[in-house]
Design goal:
Strand order of the largest sheet: 1-4-3-2
Helix content: 25-40%
Number of helices: 3
Strand content: 15-25%
Structural class: alpha+beta
Largest sheet: 4 strands, antiparallel
Oligomer: single chain
Length: 98
């Protein structure tokens, strides 16, 4: 079973609109050639900068990260914030202390 990726399916489809000179995402970074990215927080591969995502053990290309951040911010702004709940007035029980 494959672990979940930092990118959703929709975000991955949008990443295909960007250049294809280098991979969008490098998975399983800690088990291979790119394991130094864990210690430095990222790497440069084929002239593109990548950011290391520790929970997913992936490196995501920086231009993809920028696009994803915009997409997530835009979708978050579409979801309205929940309305604040009214304050409840608690009255002391009869015979209680004031």
């Amino acid at each position: 079973m494959e672990s979940a990726s930092y990118l959703t399916e929709d975000e991955l489809c949008m990443a295909h609109t960007l250049h294809g000179r280098a991979p969008y995402i490098l998975r399983g970074v800690s088990k291979g050639f790119f394991s130094l990215a864990r210690h430095y927080g990222g790497l440069t591969f084929q002239g593109c900068n990548y950011t290391y995502i520790p929970p997913h053990d992936e490196c995501v290309r920086d231009d993809v990260m920028k696009m994803v951040a915009k997409m997530r911010k835009k979708s978050a702004s579409k979801n309205p914030a929940p309305e604040p709940q009214p304050m409840l007035d608690f009255e002391p029980a009869p015979g209680g202390t004031p």
